[in-house]
Amino acid sequence: QLQLVESGGGLMQPGGSLRLSCAASGRTLGYYAIGWFRQAPGKEREGLSCISSSGGSTNYADSVKGRFTISRDNAKNSVYLQLNNLKPEDTAVYYCAAARGTRWPPYKYDYWGQGTQVTVSS
Hints:
Layout: E1 3-7, E2 10-12, E3 18-25, E4 33-39, E5 46-51, E6 58-60, E7 68-73, E8 78-83, E9 92-99, E10 111-112, E11 116-120
Parallel strand pairs: 2-11
Antiparallel strand pairs: 1-3, 3-8, 4-5, 4-9, 5-6, 7-8, 9-10, 9-11
């Protein structure tokens, strides 16, 4: 069973940066495409970005394109999401998820982490 744990969230001022990490255990993360999502209070979950198992392909939602960067280090069994130029509307719980199979981009995710809170406020 693949287990995912997010970390790196916190309280940041607008314009600041954070790097979120998604660490895997139980299985090799390199077999999975990984997606990052977020959910703000009272809002639906939003897909932000995904990265293929090799790291060779990435996708971004328009809302974060140019500000967020996804990357992975399969040797460390980890995926990252760099958040730059943070805005108050980026406040949410951020989740990573892993997708089995080879379809790109993934259309469903099979394993989810518990999330990490990001709060952007002055």
